[in-house]
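The data layer described in this paper is built around a simple, fixed record for each protein. Such a record has a labelled line for the sequence and another for the backbone structure tokens. For reference, a complete record is included directly beneath this paragraph.
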Amino acid sequence: MNLNQQPHMASPYAPPQPGYQMYPQPGYGAPHPTQQYAPYNGHTSLYQQGAPPAGQGRAPPVSGAPPVSASDSYSQYAQGNVQNGPPSVPSQPQRPPVSQSYAPATVHPGTQPTYHQPYEAPTTSVQQITGHMAGMHIGGPAPNLAGSTYGRWSLVAVGFGFITDRSFPGAAQPPVSQPSPYHSVPPAAAAGFPPPGGATVTAPPRHPGMQGPPFANQSMSAPPASQPNHTGAGMPPGPPIGGVQGPPPQPGLQGFHPQQNGAFGQMRPPQSGYAAPYPGQQNFGIQPPPPAAAPPAQKRLDPDSIPSPIQVIEDDKANKGSEPFITGVRGQVPPLVTTTFQVKDQGNASPRFIRCTAYNMPCTSDMAKQSQVPLAAIIKPLATLPPDEGPLHLVDHGEGGPIRCNRCKAYMCPYMQFIEGGRRFQCSFCSCVTDVPPHYFQHLDHTGRRVDCYERPELHLGSYEFLATVDYCKNNKLPQPPAFIFLIDVSYNAVKSGLVAVVCEELKTLLDHLPRESVDEESRIRVGFVTYNKVLHFYNVKSSLAQPQMMVVSDVSEMFVPLLDGFLVSVGESRVVINSLLDQIPEIFADTRETETVFGPVVQAGLEALKAADCAGKLFIFHSSLPIAEAPGKLKNREDKKLVGTDKEKSLFQPQVSFYGNLAKECVAQGCCVDIFLFPNQFVDVTTLSVVACSTGGSVYKYSHFQAQTDRDRFLNDLRRDVQKPMGFDAVMRVRTSTGIRATDFFGSFYMSNTTDVELAGLDSDKTVTVEFRHDDKLSEDTGAFMQSIVVTGCYAYRTVLSSPTKNVRDVLVNQCAQILACYRKNCASPSSAGQLILPECMKLLPVYLNCVLKSDVLQPSAELSLDDRAYLRQLVSCMDVAESHVFFYPRLLPLQKLDVEGDALPVAMRDSEERLSRAGLYLLENGLNLFLWVGSAIPQDLLHNVFGTASFSQIDPNMVSIGLCLPVLDNPFSKRIREIIESIRAQRSRYMKLMVVKQDDRLEILFKRFLVEDKNSSGGASYVDFLCHMHKEIRQLLS
């Protein structure tokens, strides 16, 4: 099969279709009808090496597991009901060819799976032993890469922002895996199968002094068989940890081997004698075999035997957390975002500013298309640096400005080659030769480098700042200090919820902490104030006034600013008048009965004020309801859940009117950034309102059903961080690449009026821009590929994440993942059994992370999630950096009962699965937006007393933290340490996370379990094990 084709891929996330199984929903509350299916011989039936032609008889298997009873409920390739011991076996199951679709069996309404002991390791039926990759032992033949097609993949080292990698083209390679701590003694191998074997993996040998892939004039010999690309066999198994022994061998059980690098599952050889898997399907002209006797109970597949994100994270911390990361070393991959490390800039950009999806790039576009690996960079221009790395070096070239290439306008960097004694330099991006200005000339040493190389940051650092001249400023003049304008909704809902009083009270102190050039200087930012409902109220707070003055604009169809002098003022000069205004606003509107609001004229008012002052700035809009009043930008309630899951669903996530898109363009032209704080009680059309924020580099914050008493802390912490964080205005970013690749697509919160310039009315330290690259020519293996990002700000296009129905997006992602892994299997891995799942070492976590994305609220929301919440999450994800997107899709779960109060280290995180939870445990889960503290019902009394100050589990009040910042402040080391951890986690994220205490079996536990992403969820999302099985099936179909 041509791997570039896009065949139909069976998706575990698609809605029920003819021929596919449907997901039974786990029961919470009253039972409901579920679709029941007859057995399909477990998961192994998906991976048989082939099906016979119709009518060809097959002998019964030598040994096999009996079927699950017909009463057991299965989701699409899910485990279904699990019980202890073998079920009764009325008849031998039937199975189809691998490629045959599933057909539903008889419906048994009113039945659901029974879940026993939800917090212990679940048991399983005998049928599912075979079903869960029964032959999928973590072993198999060792790869003989000398005879493989490894040499087809030419790897190109990439520099200046791209750090080279040494693995499969297109992915950063994690550290070499250590022997898995999750070992159990494997049972004896079944007859006809190779004996179990573990693998001690070592890094491949490299040529002395060689860094990164070989150059064009060097031979690329195949790595030895011990290379950790995928599994090897015949090696001694790793020792069990802590002396823990596995279960005794079971008759007929195929052994599960310790985790190794990439190979998951030596499947059973082709079994014959299977008929159709479900009632109603054809039997290929043969009679079903007689019932088989049930063998003894067998052990379920241990989830610890499949790749663990936690293990990879801990390996990376151990291997890369102790030494500084040197950016100039060719072939070195940066540490993971979960690792604390120090960066030493020696020529390539710090990974804090640029991270790439691939550190090896295919030489040709054909190879890139075949591999299907996306080539992209996530750029965070104003990333916050840790104290030990200090601020970036500032370069001032005087009136002439920075040194650049004459042709492509690339800026001076360590990869520019000086020639002719230093009088000229050759551009590393376009190879053009440019004369060196006389004032910049310097002699070269015997190696061809300038003698002042280490005295000039631009000649030896991958990241630096330069002082822009007036030529880089808008209209060729230096910018004015920016302005902050606060626009407060004073309609009935906003006043009643306490929002107006909270905002006004906070601003009186927050205005003392506006951004400034240095700590000793007073902020140069000017401020202005507007309140609104159906009309707008402007306030004159000039320092010479005794009291503030209000001016009302009731004609909102043609918005204008009624005053110029006194609207935008310095906080220091007008402090008394501003405080008086903020005291009076809640009193003025305390008895309002106006419920309708406008929104478009509010943005117009702030924009016109900035135009009148001839400056850039930011609008802080505090809004509470759908703008239904007669005015430009009026909206209607279009929330229609009937469209969810249909082809028309995408219309719900497109702006309702074009007014706000046009308004956003005007804001970008002026350098007007818009931040929106929403406080809705019902539908407000986040999709439409957020267009202005997403196009101007702004942010959207949402606080549903806001109440001052319970939501005050979350809102105020977000507001403080938003006002105080480093910010640039009226910025333009351009990404330049060397010959052979080009930037084609851009994602994030910005506007683009052409195909090259990313225009940002505002750019803060949390914002990222993702850039996708494609080939336009063949790359050179000698020089590699270079990328340079430049952001010019005047002072110190929004692309939607999804433009198709979510079902189509899920199918495309599953398809591309299968294409990537199938391509690796076909071109890089040594020949092996088709029943063996082989994953490249650098991509062994791709299935688990993809599954987390597919079942997230972005792509597969729960029924309770509103359209506004979905739109909010979409715009939030579009500009997340790598660290926040990682924890958003795979939350961090910390077992606090293992906390060492004497040390500073956190306990090792756990995998996100319910079976990992202990009834006697205390767990903290965070995903960047939410914090949960899960309390087991059997928690020890001393731990209970130290954390909650109570004597029993029943006395814990889940709402205790609703009115406070944190847990009860108790005088003991454990309480103090837990509160420190919570505050530390909050400080790492861009949004303040409200803590929710979840008691075991409490109503909030349903919400908590949704973030245990390795389990099957209530919306139909597959478990990690099930999805891995599904991916194996798709890979085999592609390769067949």
User: Anything to note?
Assistant: Confidence is low (pLDDT under 50) at residues 1-288, 794-802. Residues 500 and 586 are 6 Å apart (CA to CA). DSSP finds 19 helices and 30 strands in the chain.
